[in-house]
Amino acid sequence: MNLDDLPIRDDLRGKSPYGAPQIDVPVRLNTNENPYPPSPGLIADLAEAVRASAADLNRYPDRDATALRADLAGYLGHGLTTEQVWAANGSNEVLQQILQAFGGHGRTAIGFEPSYSMHPIITSGTSTEWISASREDDFSIDPAKATAAIEEHRPDIVFLASPNNPTGTAQPLETIEAVVAAAPGMVVVDEAYAEFAREGTPSALTLLSAHPRLIVTRTMSKAFAMAGTRLGYLAAHPAVVEALLLVRLPYHLSTLTQAAARVALRHRAELLGTVDALRRERDDTVAWLRSKGLAVADSDANFVLFGRFPDRRKVWEGLLERGVLIREVGPPQWLRVSIGTGEEMAAFRAAMEGVL
Ligand code: PMP
């Protein structure tokens, strides 16, 4: 028997699952993780937190993750309170819960592509119809075209990734405000990479108090270097959090996840201490790729989109042969490299020299 023989939903037939290759190579620069592992001090505190919470593992976790949400609100600042923050297993689960509450059969969500590939996948996974709008050649979003697309399609949900994956492009607050003003439903600003933004690139968190239908999602997978913990979160109006309580599974966030995330938040000075180095490495990577005559998108994230290659697969394979795994993603002639340590980026540059 194969997949086609199963009585799966018609709208899932012929679809491919999310699939960034997980290949064991010396230099992995393909899933936008933070390359710096936890320090011995943090590992010891994580182990102690697991030990302490293990005594309670016969009981379900705090269903509403109240202490963790309070810590996350404290981290975000902007006067946000526990009631305005929600958390789940990665921001992907947060996004799925948003789709479950505000999308669904007969409803639509719009995004501006190229953008994060999971937005359409989560959208169709919840039987919501995906509408693809496009970006400009420099990967920016034209506010007038965006509002026109929203007025035409009247989507229930608008996705704006800022900084955007895979292009690294951040949205000016004016564009977000124009979109919120035009949108009849919810607007989700996916800020998975917010901590990597360049000086002067603002967060949509500043807009929350004026816009009750705006949701800002974040994650501990990137700047916080906790991708393995699976902890994503959002900030929004308290009523939005109430809506998500209607769809979340009870006890979705394990006791161990909540404990580990709280330890990581206590260690945030150390964890976020790597962000400056990664930003510098990113800016150096952009400059180096440009010095090689390549096209490079401006990046506010911990990755860089570069091209244009008539045969990008060949470049990707050439790098892999040299022990460097990057991502074949985005528009056809482009490739994306995540920013690693100084040594990893030196290996990337050496491999690129070889390929070019
Ligand atoms: N949003 C964007 C834009 C991303 O690039 C990613 C990870 N690739 C996510 C959300 C999801 O991350 P996580 O589920 O690990 O929080």
UniProtKB/TrEMBL annotation:
Superkingdom: Bacteria
Residues carrying N6-(pyridoxal phosphate)lysine: 222
Short name of one Pfam family: Aminotran_1_2
Domain Aminotransferase class I/classII large residue range list: 27-347
Pathway assigned in UniProt: Amino-acid biosynthesis; L-histidine biosynthesis; L-histidine from 5-phospho-alpha-D-ribose 1-diphosphate: step 7/9
Chain spans, region Disordered: 1-20
Protein name, entry field: Histidinol-phosphate aminotransferase
